[in-house]
Design goal:
The protein is mostly helical. It has helices spanning 12-18, 35-75, 80-119. Helix 2 (35-75) packs antiparallel against helix 3. It is rod-shaped. The two termini are 27 Å apart.
């Protein structure tokens, strides 16, 4: 089964400290090295995690719909058309869930890549 990576941070500053990062000041410009890339990567990871949470809820709801349609069909009170429609909806939502997992994992990997360039460690 495809699972999202573990990324439970809700605060950039906390993530920054836990990651062991320190601000590096360039001597010529006085600006922080690549901090914008770090913040952008962090925000992308948080955004895709929120989309993943929504996709997880949608998957749960459509699974319940599918189960109820199967039960209705088994009891003889539902028709085959409704059952197949629920199955189609569930497969589309499941596909969207897996896309959300992929996008979240990719965003966290990109954030780790930027973090590695910041620290100089892979």
């Amino acid at each position: 089964d495809i699972e999202p990576v573990d990324f439970k941070f809700n605060n950039y500053d906390k993530w920054f400290k836990v990651s062991g990062l320190v601000f590096g000041i360039e001597e010529t410009t006085g600006k922080y090295d690549n901090e914008l890339a770090l913040k952008t990567g962090y925000l992308k990871a948080v955004e895709t995690r929120e989309k993943l949470d929504l996709a997880r809820k949608n998957r749960k709801i459509t699974r319940a719909l599918l189960v109820s349609e199967v039960a209705n069909y088994d009891f003889g009170i539902g028709d085959a058309g409704d059952l197949f429609e629920a199955l189609i909806i569930y497969t589309r939502v499941l596909s969207g869930y897996y896309d959300s997992v992929y996008n979240f994992n990719l965003a966290v990997a990109d954030l780790n890549r930027v973090k590695a360039s910041w620290t100089g460690k892979p």
